[in-house]
Every structure is written in C-alpha cells, then in structure tokens.
Design goal:
The chain is mostly helical. The protein contains nine helices and no strands. Helix content is 68%, strand content 0%. GO terms for molecular function: citrate secondary active transmembrane transporter activity.
Length: 317
Amino acid sequence: MSTRPGNFKNPFSRPWMTETGAAAAAGGSGSVGLKGVVAGGITGGIEICITFPTEYVKTQLQLDEKGGTKKYAGIFDCVKKTVKGHGFFGLYRGLSVLLYGSIPKSAVRFGVFEQAKLYMLTENGTLTNTGKLACGLAAGVAEAVFAVTPMETVKVKFINDMRTEKPRYKGFFHGVRTIVREEGIGGVYKGVTATIMKQGSNQAIRFFVMESLRDWYKGGDRDKHVPKYIVGLFGGVAGAASVFGNTPIDVVKTRMQGLEAAKYKNTWDCFIKTWKHEGPLAFYKGTVPRLSRVVFDVAITFTIYDSIMDVFNYIWK
C-alpha cells in the first residue's frame, strides 16, 4: 500500500456496527480499537435489553416443530403463553447470556475487521465492494468461533429448557456448569458450522449494504456528515437484507443448538430432515419476529454507537 498524503481523511473514522448480528468498521489507530470495544459493549447491552423479547419469541417459534410437540399458534400466542406461565420477565429468559457475551463479541469483531481492513483498503483509502464483503465475512467468522457460538448455544438451551415442565437451569453460571459437566466443552459449541455460516453471511451482507448506502449518500465526498436518522435508516435496510438472506441458516443453527440437537448427525442432516418433514417454509420460521428485531436492532445500534463514539472522541484522546 502506498503512503497516503498528509491531508487525507480516513473515511472509516469509527466502527459502524455492533450487536447480536451486525457488521463493524473501525478506522484509525492507537486507542480507536479500544474505544470501539468499550462503546460496542455499552451499545450492545442497551440494544439487547430493548430487543431481546423478539429474539426470545423468534427462537421459540424456530424450536416449535410440527406435530405433537407444537406449542404455539404464532407470535402473539407465544407471547401470551409465556407471560401467562412465567410472567412478563419470562420473555427475558436467556438475556444474561447475551449480556455476558456482548463485550468479547464486539472485541473480536472490531479487532478482526481492523486487521482485515488494513489489507483491503485501496490506495485512496476506500474499500471496494469485494473488500466490504471480505472484511465483513472475516469479522463474522471470527466472532462466530470465539464468541457467538458458545453464547448462542447457551442462550438457546436456556430458552429450550423453559419449554420443559420442570426447567433445570437456575441461572447463567449454573446452566453453563451443567452443560459442560454433562456434554463437555463441546456442549457449548453445538452448531458451530451453521453459526459460522450465519455470522459470516450476516456481517458480509450488513457491512456491504451499510457501507454502500453510506458511500451513495456521500456521493464521493468523504467529509460529508451523515445525520443520525440517516444512519439508523441505512442500518434498518442493512438488517432487513441480512434477515431475508440468511434466515434458513439461522433456523438450522437454532435447532442444532437446542436440547434435541442429538437427533441430528450434523448441520447438513438437520437441513435435510427439516426439509423432508416440514417443507421449505420451515426455514423461514420466526422470520417476522426476527425481521422486527433485526431491523430495529441494527438501526438503533448504528445510532447509539455513533453517538457514543462522538462522546468518546471528545473526552477520550
């Protein structure tokens, strides 16, 4: 890479994504990466608390197979039965898992994206379309392996456990100890292949769409300010694109991480059995609650994160 002129302004001055499923872009050097990790953890915690009930409902519907084990008639039926049986906070079962995992997930995502971007930036300091996809994919795969898979597996098992007559897990740490004791460390790595596919495609799609829309809005002017409401709007579009692009992968991942995952030999076997017994529409179970969550999630994540980074850049030199 050639030396960039002194008056060049890095167009990637802050990370653009952080959440249970979003792409990130961090620029600059020095403490920018650390700022991204801290800001990402704060943003992730706020976002999860706001949107977790839709994630809970989505997971319940994806685990709800046809036949004798089917429990819910739809989204509202799931909410109604959960609140009736476990109270309003039953919709927050498994929340602690995502809260505990948000900071390391952000750290891995931002760190890997930063390193990948160093290799993918062109001489004029921009990313090509291929570069956007590649950096997002690298970040997604890394976070899937190091953070998302164990976090998501425990979350799904917690929610799945609540479907039983006598839930076994008393809390986050008790649940993790039980899972590791009975299944070994591999017990929290169920569905790793499907999770890599999901997170990789999530980050690639979201990062590509978000950065492309941002470039379009700026019209070649790298210094042009993007208003917060525009950032949120673009984030919502990017989130929606990822939902329609990879919900089938998300369904398979969820089933591979549930308490009945033992009936599947591997990710491909889960895909085949689901297709054979429930048909292709089964791969889009939970799309509506997931869509509502992800669109809102990515939109507020962009907006909150951008605002936090503005504050950090002012007080944290």
